[in-house]
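User: two proteins, same treatment. go.

Assistant:
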Amino acid sequence: MALQGPFAVIADTPAPDVVDALRAAGGFPIIETTWADAAMALAAVEPEAIVLADACPDRARADALTDLLGEQRDKGNGLFMPVIARTRDDGPPSIPDAFAIAVNAPPQRLIRRLSTAIRIRTLHGTVLRRMRTLASRGEQIPELSTTDPLDEASVLVAGRGRSYPNLSVAVGERVGVVGALSVESAARALHARDIDGMVIGDGFGPKIVEALLTVLAEDARFRDLPVAVLGGHPAVIEPFAIELANLERISEGPQRLVERFLPYVRAHAFSQRLKRMLKSLDAKGMLDPDTGLLAHDAFWRDLNRAVDDAEKRGVGLSIARFSFDDDDRRVSLDAARLLGRLMRQVDFACREADNSIFAVFTETDLRAAHIVARRIASVLKNTMLVPDAKKGGIDTAVTLATLKPTDSIDSLIARVVGDVAAG
């Protein structure tokens, strides 16, 4: 994509490689400023993105810029602001949560990564405009969550070497972790659930690392996925660096990997949130932007219509309630998003305030509903994120009820809430 400015390049020494790359990609205008003047320059104009072409020599100046960016973000409906920071070795960026990239990375790779981040900014702007337009018409719209996207992010950690336990712990302290000890299990996880980043640890040979990266590069869904490779294999990784925009190799260990990697994970999770929000706005609020399932009011309207239709046509209708022995919000969101992938097109569901999930199976009798619900419960149990405290996994309880000729909505729901079935 052609870049449209303005863009800010901050460096105390000229950075012609960055400026020339931005210009070649169509970026205009380009604001070049030193660290001493950065806060003043950016207070006058909000750029589309910022490139920190060298490290800040003065902590106070870096803090001043950090504070300014925070104020701009919090002011009104501040747009997502990409900040890419070139760093030497695996050092931390000058601005917290900036997107770190090696100083010796080819300029084309920086532009590719910048383009990916700007797409998130564009998506954010689209969502905010749609929200303002619908609100001006007096329509009820869902709220865009303001929580840290890392609170609902999931990272796939693949590896089987000595550092794998420490790597899993370091990542798991900040986000949900999906573990994989083989290429096959990693590929299954990628296709079965929403993943916001992937870490490839040690214990894999070059051919296995190449196979993992090939899986990602060959699928358009994963080409913007943040991918961090711990340790070696530079010759294997380099050919994938253009196709996978957010691919990085980090050699300094689990903690430094997490420090450099999580800003990319946060941005990816934020983009997924924006995409769900856009679908919700397109559906006029009928979809829950947190889960992608039906919103509460829409679910009960559809349930009333489905019951009326089943009674008129004399067909079956069953409803299941999935509840969990953990009240963690991340677990509930993860289960709801997984369930949305597993359901048939004719079925519908919603997540309740108590974190349980109602799922309606249309044209389905109790026996068939048992089979479907057990299959879903089994997949949830084996796929859901598991908090560290739940070493044995999370139990999924399933209750079922099918529509009887004498049923009302209230009696049907009372049975599914009160009955107990094996899950």
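Protein 2:
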Amino acid sequence: MRLTSKISLTLVIVVLVTGVLIGVLCMENTNDALDEYLYETHEVMLNEWARTFVTYYTYNGGSWNGVENLGYIANLQQSGVVLSNLNGRILYHHDVDYIGRQVPQEIFSRGYILRVDNQVIGILYPAALFSDTFMQLEQDFVKSTMGAVAKGVFFTSLFAIIIGMALSIYIVQPVRELTRATKRMAKGNFEEPLPIYSTDEIGDLSRSFNSMAQEIEHGIEMRKQMMADTSHELRTPLTVLASKLEFTLEQNRQLETEDVVVLYDEVIRLKGLVNELQDLSKLEAGHTMLDKTLIKFRDYFDDFNVLLEAEAESRDQHLEVHLEDAPEYCYADPKRLKQIILNLVNNAFRYTPQGGTITIVAKQEDNNFLFSVQDTGMGIAPEDVDKIFDRFYRTDRSRDRESGGSGLGLAITKALVEAHGGWIKVSSKLNEGTTFTVMLPGWDDTVG
């Protein structure tokens, strides 16, 4: 069944059930109101003759014997009252043909209770209840009431169907659009966005779907680009290896030591690229487990700072380290933290000219550990800043292949930082330099 039909059918069923309940309640209330009207109409008469009947019962020794003749004694023939016992058998009626008969079930509960010393002795009724004319009028009234209720239910149901159809079309239209959009997406078409009909949950669903489609399209493009970049990166060392080996075979000569060194360098380069790709894939898939612990940062950094100073000296660059404001401890995976620091510092080495300065700063901000690497290199163009952490992303000025690196270092660094629950930011100006800042949450934030 279509959703439109389900909504309409649900509304009709709800209206019908509600109509039936309202009809039953109306009938009950109508009968109660009619009984109350009858009682109030005959209240004075019933109260007056109730005293007469109670007096008769009392003076007759607590018996109704002979009560059928009371009309002649007390002039009750035109009183318009009827007396029955507790079982509903008529004891007095101005029409003697009714005496001994049973009070109709629909009238039995409408009587006036007679009591003596809190003991029920009989039931008194208005004689009008026993009139065929009255019963016919009552039935006509009930039929009229039921007809009015039925008409109300019918027209309300019809109105519910119309409103339900319009409402269901209004609700279902975005769902139909969503279905068509998913079919387009299944065929690889992500360009046509889903129209936004409202600001309610349906609108939120449409906006979420459009965002999801954009993310999927972006992911597909990134995957295609990654495959192209990976193929391109792998092609160079493979081409060098194949060409060198092919030339050697054609010349039918043995490899010289210099040739083996060249081939080995390319193998190492190829192996390093594959390892970095594996690391990045595991990080992005969430399969890399971190062994986080409290690290005494100054002692930890001193262990490999010597290597950084030696690298800066070999490149004729200046290395400045400021750890005065660094926290005594930071909370991280020691192996991965070293990888983060070395990736950022080596990136600064590569893109800083001779005589340039690389500045390393560590400090505590609130309960967080902040680490930044600033260089005085060539900088990054504004249009490249947002893409600097993409896999294999290069620009002619800031990430040229000739300056070294696989093009994966910053992507791996970002993934490692985020795996720690932190963030990494970059700010840069062309021909002035670049600053990378890393934030790692402290112990309390992580545990809490």
